[in-house]
Amino acid sequence: MGRLLIVSNRLPVTAQFRDNRIQVSASSGGLATGLRGPHEEYGGLWIGWPGELPRLEPAQLAEFEQLLAEEHAFPIYLSREETRDFYEDIANGTIWPVFHYLIDQETMHTRGWDAYRAVNQRFAQAVADHYQPGDLVWVHDYHLMLVPGMVRALIPEARIGFFLHIPFPSSEVFAVLPWRHEILEGILASDLIGFHTSDYARHFSSSVRRLLGLETLEGQIRHGDHVAMVGAFPMGIDTDAWEERASEAEVRVRAQEIREDADGRSIVLGIDRLDFSKGLVRRFIAIEALLRSDPKLVDRTRFIQVMVPSRESVESYASLRRRLNELTGRINSTYATASAVPVHVLYRSFDEAEVSALYCSADVMLVTPVRDGMNLVAKEFVASRIDEDGVLVLSEFAGAAEDLQQALLVNPYDAQSIGSNIRRALSMSRNEKRSRMQVLRQHVRETDVHKWAATFIATLERQSKRAA
Q1: What is the pLDDT of residues 73-83, one digit of tens each?
Q2: Catalytic one of 372, 403, 448, 450
């Protein structure tokens, strides 16, 4: 095959500017980790936004772009207005909530659609400017759903893959978007369209049938002279890296310190970005109901919730944080004893070593989003449990639930279901915990992020040859 051109909203690198010096380091996110190998192997180019930058002098900008070039990365710069209209209002303020079934949270910023289209066109033009015959183009996520169609118009012979990292909603929900036809036609210009689960692929095909009148036959959709393949490619994690991290002496020591601080109490852990889709309010209500039904759990259980800050300048997110603070205060003031405070909230991000220590220290991991494309936290927890201990309580509405059937699956809208499964997890026998975790760990090993990337690329190659 030719080179691999990866197109995503963010570049896989982080820029730091200190004392007038520029440093570029690799990011640690799931996409950056998963595509690092193929990016290096195929000698391609990664096109994306480098994030907000300070004002740079021409010489500094040239130095920065040279550092990116050494990483085989090409930057797409966004103005403040584009960041507001394309990124905040349309991508995150409108598309994200609709795709997560949170229609009551979206504000339908129709004024920003022109910016969304214009930014997508700039990404597509960058692909065309760097394209060489034989290249594979892999476009990622909801920020860039028009890019495949725009690249097809610029390079008719291009081999294009598209992967959506969030859920694709049912056709009735997707249809509320004013730009529904344009989005579908943009994605359909791809040779291969990938989703985390078969349900999301089915929802996409249903929307295409309902809104465009096109039928899916054996996973293939014909749109004019072009045929697109639709499939499920569940994303994994870098399992080896999480296992190795959990084996490090400093992580083991830190995990033991967390357990000792809990003073014999079982640790129930949640690690989530502060977002409406993560089901945090319902989770806290479930914990409150559980303590109400059995106040003795206060002296036997410690609930630790890590909330990673997100979109702090957006009022709805600030309101969500206030609501969670109120719930935390109410639970702790009602159920705390002289020796125990039941809920510990940590509102900040942690490095991977500290996250690994938290995973290793937990008796129960709560992953209860009301909707999630995959949720890699669930898989990171499983990979970190090299002791084959711990119980995963997982929302049935997370994409990971399709993979991790040995977790305790819950309805995140049902506080009683969450509470009863926390209780079940706390009382589970060591043998049952081990047998469940062994199956989970085997699956996470066999379907890691490297296999995900390799499978998608190989399928794209086959599909584009078939369509040629």
Answers
A1: 999 999 999 99
A2: 372
